[in-house]
Each structure stands twice: as C-alpha cells, then as structure tokens.
Amino acid sequence: MPMRTLLLLASAALVCTSLQARAQQAPAAAPASMPRPWMNTALSADARADLLLRQLTLDQKIQLLHGTGDPHDGPEDPHAKDGNSGSGYVPGFPEYGLPGIQMDDSAYGVAYSAGSGRYSTALPSNLGLAATWDPAVAERYGSLIGHELRDQGYNMTLGGGVNLTREPRDGRTFEYLGEDPVLAGTMVGHLIQGVQSAHVIGHIKHYAVNDQESGRHAVSSEISERAARESDLLAFQLGIEIGRPGAVMCSYNRINGVYGCENDFLLKTVLKGDWHYPGFVVSDWLATHSTVHASHAGLDNEEPGNTFFDTKLKAAVTEGSVSTAELDDHVHRVLRSMFAAGIVDDPPQKGVPDVFAHALVAREIAQQSMVLLRNEAHTLPIDTHEVHTLAVIGRNADRGMISGGGSAQVDPPGGNAIGKIDEKDKKADWQRAVWFPDSPLAAIQEHLRSLHESTRVTFNDGSDLAAAAEAARHADVVLVYAYQWQAEGIDLPTLALPDAQDAMIAAVAHANPHTVVVLETGGPVLMQWVHDVAAIVESWYSGSKGADAVADLLFGTVNPGSKLPVTFPLRDQDLPHPALIEPPPASQEDWTDTDRMSRRLLAGLPPFSVRYDEALKVGYKWYDAEKKPVLFPFGFGLSYTTFAYSNLRVEEGSEVTATFTIRNTGARAGEEIAELYSTMPETSGEPPKRLVGWCKLLLQPGEQKTTTVSIPLARFSIWDEAHHGWSVPPGKYALLVGPSSATAALQQTLNLKAEPTGLTPTH
Ligand code: BGC
C-alpha cells in the first residue's frame, strides 16, 4: 500500500465502498435552452450562488459537498476520471456552466506534478517568505503559484498554512509563517490575495492549533480561549480578513477535546459567527469523523472521499436530522467561493508555465528571504580580490539543495538530485528527503566565472572529519552547507542539526576560522559552534534557484535585508515544552522508522493532550517573559550596511502613529525592516511585548528617510473572555522601535484609554 495512504488513514477500503454506491446517482440533465441567470457577472457571488442553488436537486447539492477519493489511492467514483490528478476533486455541472473544483497542494509551488509530466517552480519555503516581512513579496509568491496551478488545470490551492510556531520541532514549520500572529496573518493574507488574483480559489489551513505532527489525529490541543484568540486564531483571522480565501481547511487534531472538523466553537461560533466568514470549510484529508455532528458544527465539504457527506448526509437530510436550510448553507458557501474566485467565469486554460521568468522570480524571492545571522570582521560578502581559494564542504553540496517534504513537496525537474527515489517515475516519495538539482558548488563556480575571477574552488562532502578539516585548512574561506530535513508527518526529535553535522562544522571551524555556514533548514536550529565560525546565512529551503541566490548573497550581488520570523533558541530545554509531546506508544515492539511514522499519524492512537499552558507566550513572548537568553531573537537579521534610528514621535488618535527616521550609515544600499513593538499595561496579564507593526525601507548609502507607521488601536487590544470581545486595556504603554525584538533603538510611552474594539481586532 502506498505510504501516503497509510499515512492518511487506515479506512481507504471503506471510502472506496461508499464511492461505488455513489456512482449510481446521476444528476438530472438540464435542458439545453435553460436560462442561466447565475452566469450574470454583474450580480454578487452570493446572489449567483443562490440562483444556482435553487436549480439543484438534492443529489446535486450533495455532490458538491464531498470529493471523489484521493487520486493517489485509485479512486472509484466514476466522476473521478475528470479529476486533474491533484489532491482532490469535486465534480461540477457542465450543464449549468459550473466547473468542477480541481484542488492541489501548493504551499511553496504546485505539489507532485511529476506524475502527470508537468513542471512546477519551487519557491522558498513559506517560512522563508515570512522572513521577507514583505506583503508585496507574498502577493508575488501567491500569484506565481496561482498561475502555475492554472497552467496545470487546477482552480483551487490547498496552500496557505498559517499554524503558529508554538513547537518549532513541528515537521511542518517550513510550511508555516512563523511565531507571531500579526506577521504570519498579514503575510498569509497577501499570499492568498496573490493566488486568488489568478482566479484560483484561495485557501488557509489547518484550522486550528494544529501545532505539531506527532499523533496529529489523536492529539487534543488544550488551550484557553484568550490564548487561542490572541495567538493561533488571530493569525487565521488576519489572514482571512486580508486574503478573503474561498476555503478554510479544518485540522486533524482535537481542540479542547473536539475534532477540528466538528468543532462547533471554532467553526460556527468563531469562524462563521464572530468573523462572518462567507466561504466554505473543507476537511483535511480524512479528517471528517461524523455526518450530522460535523454538518451542524459547520463542516461544508468532506475531502478527499465521501464517507460521511454523501449517502449518509442525504439520509440525514431526508429524515430531517440535517435541515434543508443547513444543507443549503453548505452548498451556498461552496458555490459562492467558486463565483467569487472567478473560476466559473474564467476557468483555467492549461498551458506551459513561463519556466524562465518563474525561475527568476524564485531566485529573487530567495534572495529576499535569506537571513544573515552572523558576519564577523566583514567576512561576507566574499572579496574575490583577496580570497583565492574557497572550500565548499557539506553532504550533497555538490549536487543540490534540500526541500521540505510531505503533501507540500514540489517535484524537482529531473527528479531527486541525490538519485531517483521512486523506481516507476520521477515522483517524490511522500516522506523521503528530496534535493533539488541545484548544486551549491556549481552555483559558486558559475558565479566566479561570471565575475571573471580565477578563485580556486575545492569540494569535500564532510563525511570524514579529518579530510574536511584538511580541505578547510587549505582554503582562504570555507563555505559549509548544512541541512536539516523537515516533512509533514514527522516532528524533529531535537532542533540540533542531524547526521553529526555539528561535529563536522566544529572540526572545520577549528581548522579555519574563516568559515561561513549556510543553513538549509526548515526552521530554527541549535548551533553549539556559533562563536567559532565567521559568518552564518540562514537560507531556509530556498526553492528552484536557491543555490544561485545563496551565491548572490555570499558574493554581495545582493545585500541581505530579511529578518527572522521565528526565535532561534539556545537549547531544546528552553522551549515551552522541553521535550516533544509524543503519543503514548501503541505497543512495545521495536518499530522501524516507517512504522513509527505511520503509527504516529494514524487514527486509532489513544487520545492524548498537549497542554499549551504557555498560553499567550508564543515564541519571543515566551523567552521575554521567562527571561531566557536566545541564540538569535525574533526579528533579527544583519545587512552588509548599517542603519541608525532617530527622532521617534508617537501620536494617539483613532489609531496610533509612529514617525521616525532611519539613516543608512554604511557604504552600500540596503533594506531595513524597522520593527515596532509595544509593551502592555502591567494589569493586562500580557507578555512583556508584542509586535504591532513594521516597515521596510530601501536606503542608499548616507540616505535617510522619515516614515510613519499607522497602528490600529486593535493591535493593542486583548481578548476579554467574560465580555466575549476585544478591548484595549487602559494604561501606560511603551512603543519600541528598532531592528529586532531584542533591540529597541527608540522608545516612547503613551497612555491609551479603555477602548472596546468588538469582535474584530483587525482594524
Ligand atoms: C495535509 C494537508 C493537505 C492534504 C491534501 C493532508 O495530509 O495535512 O495539508 O492539504 O493532506 O494533500
């Protein structure tokens, strides 16, 4: 049985059986001359949805509320033949002009396209995108994905992951946008805008508090309402408000004991109630657990099959346990999102993506995402007039760069750079590391050639410490490429680098102090050698053109300007949960890695809980509150130039405005992300400070700019459980402006009056 099947759930047989039953119901044919008032583009998406809804029979309505099976598992539904080989398919009604919904995973590019002989560009990981702190880059990122989805015949993404990094060992950290809800929510909102600009249904996931992979079907995330509203849910709320995605994916886990896809509080009270969300809720793959309960709670569409939302839902409607109004609401939401995204009026036309232009976009976004963490004695950028020998060291650093795995996996052109992993085709296996054929060594050599430099480059794979140290000793500068692989379904046991790379880096750094470490990691890692190396670049998973982008940065063709969207802690023990909370072992037998992985994921594990008692203290808020030193703080990142901050003026009105000046005090042009944090009144019970805004400025050498950042009052608000709403606690605040969460270059106090901001903390 394919791994993917195993990993999703053990009930594929059951799904197939009910899909066969479904095959007997053919929708009634509509007369060819039938008027189609819902095709009137002057009407609102809601009005169009209502007009079409009135036309549909019960069977047709039901058909819109479930999928046709996972194509990877060999679906049985006869409609499935019209699917596009993506992650999911909901058939439409050609007789009404309604296309089917062709869904595909596309977190950092269109996933798994090799099996259909298609090409996809891999962008940097979502966490890398977050490091740009740039909404315009997020739109560009989303737009590229939207266009490549269309080129491949898809009209709905399954990207948009925005679970907060409460647990950085989460195997999907690379798929999310970091630890701060305002940064993550803003960035995902703009990413969704970009996707939807290509007339593709946008999507946000996994709702909610799906913050680890271990035992994801069995775990209950225990969290207070206030903590959830001000952290994980706030990221969704902002993302939805900014991006207006057509769909929200409910998560595998339970939240305070109730599964995400039948969680009345999350779906009905919060999402569709408080936030007035008009789109549809789609289940994560095999995350539906009931019919009537899930329907009442607000699930609209079961994916990828039809176990609960097909014949069982029809029976529930017929016998009255699900009302027609409730059924119609589900259908209305699906139709409305289809009209709103433009997939009815402008269906995708298959085509060849603009591979070359997209490669350039991938390279530019990668350049903008990499964070310079350390740069002693101006080791970087490498001065080729002085550096005559470079040693490139690291496993696979002559072959490729690593990528994030799981359902987000983008297939590399030509297959895995370290050898084909699937005999039958060049498709990536779901849970094995895939390296893009993007050789750091070749990129360095190419870069030097383009500069007409004769710098000598040697390579060593780092497997033999003595040989690696020897190679380092003979070079003027050493470039170590170190990796950490993350994938859906497997959390990391530790944030330490795997495969004895710490010892290798230490040996190399001991042999040559001019050692630069380039990290290819999904999220934060530990660095016991941090003080022994000259420079560190965090390149994340950098996509199709990552190696070139790293070279651009190392040689100074580009000046780094990104900042960390997550804290890099000093030790695992400093995390809110010093050890990963894993499901209790299912048995005592000695599991193989594969068994271990699948058992961690499969349903049927005994329920267990992760108590998020750190509550509001996520990421930097935790380290601040607990006064724990960190390796690199949230918001940190260096440039090849330097900046000075001055003249802060803060004014309060219907919003708070902060005006300040930044000057480029160095010798080259560079971008600075200025970050604005606020402390909260002591009585508010909040962590020491929170991000309330930021701005990114490009400055020429010597140039200074004065800028004003407007901060909605809502940014200062807290969730009041007793009054079921947000309000600004009255009292004294300090507004801090500076280059990272750890450094306030400027500060000014302000006094805010009590201000209820209602149910929406977002404007
Ligand atoms: C993942 C989702 C993904 C879905 C479809 C699930 O295993 O959790 O993020 O969209 O599969 O591939």
Q: What does this molecule look like?
A:
By secondary structure, the chain is α/β, with parallel strands linked by helices. It has three domains: about 325 residues, TIM Barrel (Alpha-Beta Barrel), CATH 3.20.20.300; about 220 residues, Glycoside hydrolase family 3 C-terminal domain (Rossmann fold); about 120 residues, Sandwich (Immunoglobulin-like). Helices cover about 25% and strands about 20% of the residues. It contains 20 helices and 30 strands. The protein starts with a helix and ends in a 5-residue tail after the last strand. The site of beta-D-glucopyranose (BGC) has 8 residues, from loops.
Summarize the structure.
This protein is of the alpha/beta class and 763 residues long.
Topology:
Blueprint: H1 3-8, H2 12-22, H3 45-55, H4 58-63, E1 88-90, E2 101-104, H5 126-130, H6 135-151, E3 156-157, H7 181-196, E4 203-207, E5 219-222, H8 225-230, H9 232-243, E6 247-250, E7 254-255, E8 258-259, H10 264-274, E9 280-283, H11 292-297, H12 311-319, H13 324-341, H14 355-369, E10 371-375, E11 389-393, E12 401-402, E13 435-436, H15 440-450, E14 456-460, H16 465-473, E15 477-483, H17 501-511, E16 515-520, E17 535-538, H18 546-554, E18 568-569, H19 593-601, E19 608-611, H20 620-626, E20 630-632, E21 643-652, E22 655-664, E23 670-679, E24 689-699, E25 704-712, E26 718-720, E27 725-728, E28 731-738, E29 746-752, E30 755-758
Parallel strand pairs: 2-3, 4-6, 5-7, 5-19, 6-9, 11-14, 11-15, 15-16, 16-17
Antiparallel strand pairs: 1-2, 7-8, 10-17, 12-13, 18-20, 21-22, 22-25, 23-24, 23-28, 26-27, 27-30, 28-29
Helix pairs in contact: 3-13, 6-7, 6-14, 7-9, 14-18, 15-18, 16-17
Bound molecules: beta-D-glucopyranose.
The site of beta-D-glucopyranose has 8 residues, from loops.
